[in-house]
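User: Run a structure prediction on this.
Assistant: Running it now.
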Amino acid sequence: MKLLEKQPETRYPDTQALLQALWTAGKERTSAAWKVPLIASTAEAPVEATVEEKEAWLARRQ
């Protein structure tokens, strides 16, 4: 969100500051709390399916 700040002075001052923030955020993502899948396993998903079938399958999983 800091990249989208309206006032330029509240954004990252330079590329190095942005890279440092990304590096720090990346290190925090190594905890077990980040290792949760966003969707159920796709192993059961139909391989050859229409778009409607895939959407129905995903809807059932959510």
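The mean pLDDT is 81.
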